[in-house]
Amino acid sequence: MIRARQQVLIASGIGLIILIAVIALVVSNAISSGSTQDTTNIYLNIPVSLTEDGTPIVGSANATVTLVEFLDYSCYQCAEYQAVINTFIEEYVATGRARLEIRILAGLDPAGSAVAARTALCAAEQNAFLQMNSELLRMQQRYGQNAFTADHIRSAGGRLGLDLESLSLCTQNTALFSSVVRETVDLALALNVQTMPSLLLRYGKSTPVWLFENGLILTGQIPLDVLRQAIEMAPVTP
Fold first, then answer.
1. What is the pTM of this model?
2. What SS3 class is residue 225?
3. Interior CA angle at 224 toward 223 and 226, to 5°?
4. Predicted confidence (pLDDT) per residue in 62-119, tens digit
5. Rounded to an integer, what distance in angstroms lies between the CA atom of residue 209 and that of residue 87?
6. Is 157 helix (H, G, I), strand (E, B) or coil?
7. Alpha helices (runs of H) in 192-234, residue ranges in sequence order
8. How far is CA 156 from CA 19, 103, 160, 161, 228, in A?
9. What is the pLDDT of residues 160-170, one digit of tens each?
């Protein structure tokens, strides 16, 4: 009798473990699929151009206010914050109310950050900057310090339907885009950017300015409601 009970308990335990594993797999797949689909929908038909120094800028040229984001693809907080950025893109960039200027730094991980920066800018040459930007941040969340290997980047390029040979050659060119990153480093130093992500506003073609609340500069992961308020209060003309 005792042995029979033990067998029942063991069987029940195994069944419970299998059930939990199946549920976790289903939920994980659902989340992954939903995230990819949502991102694809958000990014559809949004123009991406380059600033004079080669930095990607997303949205209509007619928008008079720009959210300037400083990020490093090795920054986990930047990856966490992407959900807020996606909502901002959906509400303001896709509707033409604002633009998003993504300033890429590459200092947190001397190897990985630089590779990721080149990968994002190389993807821009294939009209897939926003998509690759999102892929790189997801890779950071999933793989951490091992995110930006050649295999992971190739997989990301494949998912986006890029020319993988051109992407590989481009990302291996260490001299390519070095001036773009250097310009961003110089701007970050001039603005005293010390945390990532850092978000500032640019009105027209003016120098970016910090957001304030109660007289204090806002840094790090600024709440979406604060960004909304800043955009809504921005002047219609620069």
1. 0.82
2. helix
3. 70
4. 999 999 999 999 999 999 999 999 999 999 999 999 999 999 999 999 889 999 999 9
5. 22
6. helix
7. 224-233
8. 31, 21, 6, 9, 31
9. 999 999 999 99
7 found inside a domain: no
Query: How far is it, in rounded angstroms, from Cα 198 to Cα 103?
Result: 10
Report the number of distinct structural domains present in the chain: 1
Alpha-carbon torsion, ordered 214, 220, 222, 227, to 10 deg: 90
Task: Residue 167: give its domain's CATH number.
Answer: 3.40.30.10
Q: Are 196 and 75 in contact (CB under 8 A)?
A: yes
What's the residue count for the chain? 238
For residues 103 and 188, is the Cβ–Cβ distance under 8 A?
yes
Domain span at 156: 48-233
Residue 192: predicted pLDDT? 96
Q: Is 71 helix (H, G, I), strand (E, B) or coil?
A: strand
